[in-house]
Amino acid sequence: MIKPSHYDDDGYPIVWWRTILPSNSLAALNGLARDAAERGVLGPNVRFNLHPIDECNEHVVPARIARDIERRGSRALIGLVGVQSNQFPHALDLAREFRAAGLPVVIGGFHVSGCLSMLKEIPAEMREALDIGCSLFAGEAEEGRLDALFLDAWKGELKPIYNYLKDLPSIAGVPFPWMPKESLERNSGQWSSFDLGRGCPFQCSFCTIINVQGRKSRFRTADDLEKIVRENIAQGIKAFFVTDDNLARNRHWEEFFDRLIKLREEEGLKANLTIQVDTLCHRIPNFIDKAKRAGVMRAFIGLENINPDNLLAANKRQNKITEYRHMLQQWHERGVFTLAGYILGFPADTKESILRDIEIIKRELPVDILEFFFLTPLPGSEDHQRMHLAGEWMDSDLNKYDLHHRVSHHPVMSDAEWEETYKAAWAAYFTWEHMETVTRRHARLEGGRPKKALQYLNEFRMLYENEGVHTLEGGVVRRKRRLSRRPGLPIEPAFVFYPKFAWESALKAWRYWRGFRREKALLRKVVSDPARHAYTDLATRPLEDNELKALDLFHETRGGAEAVEKQHRQDVLIESVRAAHEAA
Questions:
Q1: Using CA atoms, how far apart are residues 328 and 338, in angstroms rounded to an integer?
Q2: I need a labelling partner for 202 at 20 to 30 A (CA). Which of 26, 267, 300, 313 fits?
Q3: What is the pLDDT of residues 242-270, one digit of tens each?
Q4: Contacts of residue 119, Cβ cutoff 8 Å, sequence gap at least 6
Q5: What are the domain boundaries of the chain?
Q6: Which CATH class name applies to 189-395?
């Protein structure tokens, strides 16, 4: 099983010595395959040899893999798993080589599922995969579906398409995502991933999840969670990325947190979690308190934008900017590090409005990291379907659909201005001045982690500046293989490639050294300040009754004043109902 990477701007697969994020798609398929092997689905005399590969931290050379299989006298099924749209061109290039070696190949993931879910016709790149003899797998693999695929492959009777999109399986009590320690050691920090639920009830137009995993939520159990934690801690893995799109809307969240709290406080089994939540999670009684006790160290929040008009345009009606500050303060006061996704390129956006809004966020919201993304019509989303049907221009190179490249036109900004704005947004947020502010916000807390906060900030800054990739696909020490270049681009001679790569690596090393040195000096400055616990600023200041009238967040953004007025009407209504109830 191979989780493909995708090509960088020079045509080389993005591969690292150590990656930052683990692949949950790979872990989920490996967990199911491990269970199938233990049950002997191909018969008692067939031995499985599972080899999960995350190409982001391990070079994939199809010819070498084919030779190893032939030398062992084995039969094989090549699974290209969790393939996103930006990874599909490279996955198809790998598939061509595997098929040329006579190996069966099946391709699954969000691109295949999203296209079959939302488009009437199979797109050209997927037809090409079918034409060279690949199978396509859409949907989820639980409830015996992976067993059926293995049996078909064993008999040499793979179907062209396996489509389970209209039959969403239960995930309670089924084999859970799992990776062996030797694979996880290729991740920086040695952490793993799992999901506790799938599906999302919201209708964001840029999202593919609702059209692939459905709007009906499905859940694992607290017993499943305990098994995941125990088995991973037994092999030395204690940090986890929970991939649920929104854990706060998992109706079993309290059972999960209570089980984790029990394991931590009664048995000393301490799992450290990174979770994803929405902007209204603080309205759920005890959610943030229990999240902290359960071991949540980082929370990724789908902030997306601070302009109500933009949020409405994306069908993200659940985001209320009047709640942002209160929600972020609650996470911050508990020492949980917050990361927020921020999308650039909504119809009303301009370069000036985006940079103005970033300054408002820096000043008024205690979020730690903003991750910027181009508004992208991902195949499988409502936006892509609408633009496809309308015949609007979208870039034909799927490799660019990584949220880090512009692939459509903006109604106001020129292509060049939109791209320039994206770069300017990263530069505007990740200044040393603001990084010091965020570090001081953490240094003021009892038990705060200013060192870790500054480390995260600087890592994000340096990955973007030094590597030219989005931080979500970053890693430690870039690796390149001379012969693994995108078809159509020339293979550089060894006497050109290796000196150039050595120079690039040396230059990056010097830039990293300079960045780490400045980070160390800044941290020393902050933690040695005797008044650090007295630090306060507008973002961390306690909420005041008149804040809706005072903050630029509510008056300088498009639709902000209307949001304030709506919130005021709601507050008046709630107060009148409360007064009437008390009078009765």
A1: 8
A2: 26
A3: 999 899 989 999 999 999 999 999 999 99
A4: 379, 385, 388
A5: 2-163, 189-395, 430-465+476-543, 547-583
A6: alpha beta
